[in-house]
Specification:
alpha+beta, 3-stranded antiparallel β-sheet, globular, disordered N terminus
Length: about 60
């Protein structure tokens, strides 16, 4: 990973963590990856809004409809 120190995508500290299953959303906590948190409503792992994981999950969810 050129220039990267961690496993994140360098999206910065500001953003939202979203549950693609039920739609729950919360502000991202600095220093804590969204994927390390679970949705308090349904228990699904939260994803960083706009990340590749989030985009893929939304795309796969829309395919199932």
């Amino acid at each position: 990973m050129p220039g990267g120190k961690g496993k994140g995508e360098g999206m910065g500290p500001i953003g939202n963590c979203v549950c693609v299953k039920c739609g729950y959303s919360t502000f991202k906590k600095p220093g804590i990856p969204c994927m390390d948190e679970k949705c308090p409503m349904c228990g699904t792992v939260l994803l960083r809004e706009g990340s590749e994981h989030y985009k893929n999950a939304v795309k796969n969810k829309n395919k199932k409809r």
